[in-house]
Amino acid sequence: MTMTKSPLQIARAAYQPKMPVALQGNVSLKEGAKTQSVADQEEILKLFPNTYGMPVIEFEPTSEATTVAAFNVGVILSGGQAPGGHNVICGLFDALKRINPENKLYGFLGGPSGLVDGKYAELTADVIDEYRNTGGFDIIGSGRTKLEETEQFDKGIKVCQELGIKAIVIIGGDDSNTNACVLAEYYLQKNCGIQVIGCPKTIDGDLKNEMIETSFGFDTACKTFAELIGNIQRDANSAKKYWHFIRLMGRSASHIALECALQAQPNVCLISEEVEAKSMTLNEVVEQIVEVIVARANAGLNFGTILIPEGLIEFIPAMRVLIQELNDMLAENEEFAALEGDDAKREYVKSKLTAASCDLYRSLPKGIAKQLTLDRDPHGNVMVSQIETEKLLIEMVQKRLAQLKATGTYKGKFAALNHFFGYEGRCAMPSNFDADYCYSLGNTAAHLIAAGKTGYMALVKNLTKPASEWVAGGVPVTMMMNMERRHGKMKPVIQKALVDLNGAPFKYLAAHRADWADPQLSYIYPGPIQYYGPSEVCDQPTRTLMLEQA
Fold first, then answer.
1. Is residue 479 domain-shared with residue 462, that is, in the same domain?
2. Residue 179 — φ and ψ, nearest 5°?
3. Which partner for 309 in 230, 254, 447, 529 could form a disulfide, CB atoms 3.0-4.6 Å apart?
4. Which residues are designated catalytic?
5. Domain CATH number, residue 532
6. Residue whose C-alpha is closest to residue 220's, from 32, 433, 477
């Protein structure tokens, strides 16, 4: 397929990503001490006897060249899109060709199912060159098939043997990299000679720990969202008549909302982890918003911006209990399914809930209450990520302001607009940071394969320094694991990183949120992602990283 390119695409295709010094020539390995999992050490060791306890690896430059026999590699894009995925593949391809020009790279099509079903394409130079520094995952496509069953693993062995594939690189989030480690362990047990390497991807930012400083795509997505928020704030400051309720992607953690707040300084930014830590009720969350709206109205400003994490509703303790009761009640419930009409279903639900949950359910706008009982995921659970929390808050804020207006406490005008930012950032053209970071990750994965490693995640750290000073290597995936209950069973998973309420990024937000709500202060406007210009504008990492490593 011939691709039509914009002038920016043409210019970006020529951009040469920056890399750590250790990846610019011949590479040697430095191994650290043995590692252990972050928790549940005995259980993780039993499940991963061959890949547990491996050392962290760092690459160092060397003048000694090594000859490596030609080998083939397969690559998989897994899960939701994130800016920079194409550059991981480009970096992997380029490094493989430097290691041995006879090496080949195959892309499995449509995600992990491509490995199982034997659907693939060879990625040659002419294909790769079309995708350098571009957003999206369309080079080979992605998918959400989980590699968890031995039947899938065995089919993968057959496909890899047919193609002469020595290693598989799985580019994905925490679940995908957990699956990668399970696959690596199984292939070692079968002694089939297939290595598995992971790369850390998710715009949500919750795949990070003491070794992985950030997942790729987070930087670009947050800069994209922050630009949009800044545009809205400029519009609000111009029109002076709307409150913008903006829900941001990130169900399991509030990293995106926090980073966008640090960049755009909205009037209100809710952090799910703080709401949970303070055991706030839904009404208390509403009251927090109302206080800012009233204060600004008293200064004659009937407009503003409010950032809302996608998963907020699940972090409100009472809402979480309600959702769990609904999950239990409606799982395979034929009696409920047979009811006709919203009123009948609503009355049925209220009759089955506990008193506290029933009171909360009654207080919700009917549209949201209905949504809680309609949309289910494949496991029968409420699809929390699709609940329009921003609309829920608008309705409840509006109701509370009407009460205050009746008592003369509030004399402003309230008009609200709702937004959801998610897909706008997932396939954006990668920022310089993500273009460089992802290209380095791909190179790192190739060198881990050449060194015979498996069960590792590609590691690039020291990311607040210039790219030449970044440190590349690998971290055992088992080091990041703990046991968690998933669908009624205890399973090994990479531990998700929530917003640390004692960390510097959140503390900065907490210290400045009153200033950002102050009617006397004007907004700041981050502007678009910068690709060209002074380094202090176009090459900077996220504020989160800079504050964490200050």
1. yes
2. -60, -35
3. 254
4. 204
5. 3.40.50.460
6. 433
